[in-house]
Amino acid sequence: MTMDLRVLRQADWDQWYGTLELAFGGVPETPEERTLWRELTRFDRSIGVWDGPDVAGSAGSFAFRMAVPGGSLVPAAGVTMVGVRPTHRRRGVLTSMMRHLLEGVRDRGEPLAVLTASEPGIYGRFGYGIATHRIHARVDTSRVRLVIPEDPSVTDTSYATDGVRIRLSAPEDARAACEEVYARRVTTRPGMLARQPGWDAVPLLDPVDKRDGASPLNCVLAEADGETVGYARYAIRPSWDRHGPRGTVVLRDLEALTPAARAALWRYLFGLDLTSGIDAFSLPVDDPLLQLVDDIRRCDVQVADQLHLRLVDVGDALAARTYAAPVDVVLDVTDAFCPWNTGRWRLTGDAKGATCARTRDAADLALSARELGAAYLGGTSLAALAGAGRVRELREGALAEASVAFMSAVAPWLPHGF
Ligand SMILES: CC(=O)SCCNC(=O)CCNC(=O)[C@H](O)C(C)(C)COP(=O)(O)OP(=O)(O)OC[C@H]1O[C@@H](n2cnc3c(N)ncnc32)[C@H](O)[C@@H]1OP(=O)(O)O
Question: How far apart are CA 310 and CA 333, in angstroms?
Fold first, then answer.
């Protein structure tokens, strides 16, 4: 029987989403989750593969705008909801859906496709590279101390934590204030996503069945001079043993506009009564927390892959970001899955902007689309990729020049999953 790939219809959503749940082990999502993801589904950008009456595969994308080095917001298709029915795996269903999705992304003129992977080994073959990493920190707050620089002569409230007030608020009541802070943070870190309509509900999603013994979500606002300058959203998972309380603060997100607000929020979280640990699932690899603690070992930091990124249009993507140092290199790009990118590209740029166009000039560096994806947001260096044999230097000096230029001053990071 031949399979039929077609755009998702509203009436088919339940069946389509059911296949996704089946692919993920068959545990149905909660009604809150289903309602939210249905509302956020972009039907015009979602596809299914039908085998007779059954949905054999599901996939789709969101229309994001993502911060890139230099602070521009670039259209990025957020590939999502990929699932293949267990009876249909390893027959090319994902491959056919990915081809269809990436052709659509190209037709819409979006230079990038991004995703978070259930398993990191799946998407390299489709030209995605790991563009951001996250750290998972499990801080032993019974041992780790915060060392907050306190200078009594500093009266500027952006540094003096004394000027910051921490206020508890219901997460829903604080939504608008948090969103204002978030919006001001987006362009400061590559990989962050400008909020699209409806997406402010994602960080508030808190189904009872998924709390795993933790409290409902709490929110604290950091305020200075009458303005909200930061927030943290967290739950508390109480626990007791024969020595007493051993609760954990489960941190969902923390954003701050000033060092003082950040320090004040962490101080609040470290000090919560009846807790002795903070479980922070996703922080940037250069999160300032690592510079505020006196014992990084007891923060039990683990690094993992996070955002996988693909350049769908090499020329537009490389011209959309800026470069930390002047760069003028010819890249010989191979791209088996999106062959329209294959060939030589001259990239010329600096901290103000860049151009990238096809050329017949001799190549300086040879690499595939996957390596460009890994290096694009400035978190993984071309030199590190070359060390693994994944980038080849064809002109002496070109690797160092390009490697420095591609790096970002702050580590790229994705603030939330999708
Ligand atoms: C962005 C997101 O939504 S991530 C979520 C992805 N979904 C899941 O993990 C749910 C459970 N898994 C599944 O639904 C499926 O197994 C999928 C989607 C991962 C793969 O779908 P399939 O239709 O089996 O993939 P397809 O047959 O096109 O395989 C393409 C290639 O990827 C490889 N591949 C597929 N899955 C994996 C995997 N989990 N790890 C490593 N390689 C994989 C295949 O071996 C094949 O390799 P080849 O080209 O060398 O032969």
Answer: 13
Q: What is the domain class of 308-406 according to CATH?
A: alpha beta
Q: What is the pLDDT of residues 165-208, one digit of tens each?
A: 999 999 999 999 999 999 999 999 999 999 999 999 999 999 99
Place of tokens 């947001």: 377
Domains 134-305 and 308-406 equal at CATH topology level? no
- What superfamily would CATH give domain 134-305? Gcn5-related N-acetyltransferase (GNAT) (3.40.630.30)
pTM (predicted TM-score):
0.96
Residue 1 in this model has a pLDDT that exceeds 60: no
Residues enclosing ligand 1, CB less than 6 A? Answer: 23-24, 79-84, 89-95, 115, 117-119, 121-122, 125
Residue 159 has a pLDDT of 61
80-84, 148-152, 402-406: least confident range: 148-152
Cβ contact 341:375 at 8 Å: no
Task: Give the whole-angstrom CA distance, residue 228 versus residue 345.
Answer: 45
CA of 58 to the centre of ligand 1 (A): 12
- CATH numeric code, 4-130: 3.40.630.30
Which parts are annotated binding residues for acetyl-CoA? Answer: 82-84, 90-95, 118-119
Atom 8 of ligand 1 has which residue's CA nearest to it? 83
Task: Please give the pLDDT value at position 149.
Answer: 81
The alpha carbon of 127 and the centre of ligand 1 are apart by a number of angstroms equal to: 14
